[in-house]
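Lab manual, section 2.4: Encoding a predicted structure.

Procedure: take the sequence of the chain (175 residues), apply the prediction step described in section 2.3, and record the output as structure tokens. A sample record is shown.
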Amino acid sequence: MSFYQKLAEVGKKFVSEHKLFKYGFNLSPMYRRSTARIMETSEDLMFVKIKLPISYKNRNYVNSIFGGSMFSAVDPIPMVQLINLLDSNYVVWDKAANIRFKKPAKENLYAEFIYTVEELEAIKTGVLKNKEIEIVKTTQLTNKRGNVVFCEVKKTIYIASKDFYKRKRKKAKAI
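Recorded output:
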């Protein structure tokens, strides 16, 4: 269990899980460096919204938002959100990412991260059937109205049953 997971376990005794998710991310050094902030989380954690404001901290040489800031603003959310939506019988890892810059960002950017009940059921069914699966979550960084896409990030997320994953790692170590 990581430092952040241990901190979250303690924090859940005092603060609701969705508020802990929001403020935990916003206060953590690893996310603060992205210059983004989580603006909103639903109580069930199925929805998260971030804002990446343009500032002197993230402007690049041509006065638009640095691509690394765009990626780091969205990178951890889908995986950590899914970890919190599934129970402790699952292992969840980021496996790959693809980022596509579509337009220079010279204004504040926003992104929404959504999981549906159907999606979670498909993940659980897939893991039950195949022991491990991969999903791809696509996130778009847009303007405030959501009608201009500046950047698109596709994250490949690996999900497995904890028992299967432990056996797989044990087998890999033996080789």
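Check your result against the sample. The chain has a mean pLDDT of 92.
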